[in-house]
Amino acid sequence: MSSIVCKDLCKTFQQGEEIITGLDHVSIEIEAGDFVCLSGPSGSGKTTLLNAMGGLDTPDSGQIQVGDTRVDQLGKGPLADMRLHKIGFVFQAYNLIPVLTARENVEFVMQVRGEPAQERSHRSHDILKEVGLEGMEDRRPAQLSGGQQQRVAVARAIVSQPALVLADEPTANLDSVTATQLMDLFVELNQHHNITFVIATHDTRVMAYAKRLIKMRDGKIISDEKQQHPSTVVS
């Protein structure tokens, strides 16, 4: 499991002649195994913070530690290696490779890691079954619904057993039923695999599942509360 510690993060963006504040002295600690939602309107800084945690964006100043690794001090090579081995990413756009099947999309990360073909095949089959896509392994993305494509993306994110999953608006393109199914799956993975989840969202359906809800506005954390009765999956 991975904890996250962010200290005094600042980030600005140039937009024409205007300077946009993405993060304004943000400090936060997330315990290993937690299930956290970052919420707020567009431009609040939630995606910028999520990307900084995952090493996809570099803050102008401040410190980020994931587990025992100082993310902000890593060079490109070690950073890419950390993302490959320790973090799973789920995006609003599914980012599946259209010419590959569901199974091949899931196996892709393991292939990059150099894992044996037999191991890749076995684990991709198991994980697709776990996310409810058994029997659809050989379908390409165009042959799957949006919810099914997002499940493939989730399977790809977790097949390498990362300690941390970062998700950016994962339900944005999903209907209510599919969004609920996806969040139930996230909770199950959190409970049964002890994966730390950090989800950036403005979807109230997603917020209901958070053990901890962090609200942001204008690059700042404006509230940080533990939720007493988050939506849960019954074992």
Structure in words:
With 235 residues, the protein is α/β, with parallel strands linked by helices. Helix content is 34%, strand content 28%. It contains seven helices and ten strands. Strands 6-7-8-3-9-10 form a six-stranded mixed beta sheet, with helices on both faces. It has a four-stranded antiparallel beta sheet with strand order 2-1-4-5, with helices on one face. It is globular and about 50 Å long. The two termini are 21 Å apart. 38% of the residues are buried. The mean pLDDT is 89.
Kindly name the structural category: alpha/beta
Helix content: 25-40%
Q: What is the CA–CA distance across the termini?
A: 21 Å
User: Which regions contain 5 or more consecutive residues with pLDDT less than 50?
Assistant: none
Strand arrangement, largest sheet? 6-7-8-3-9-10
Main sheet: strands, sense, barrel: 6 strands, mixed
Mean pLDDT: 89
Using only C-alpha atoms, the radius of gyration works out to 17 Å
Strand percent estimate:
25-35%
Order of helices and strands: EEEHEEHEHHHEHEHEE
Tell the overall outline.
globular
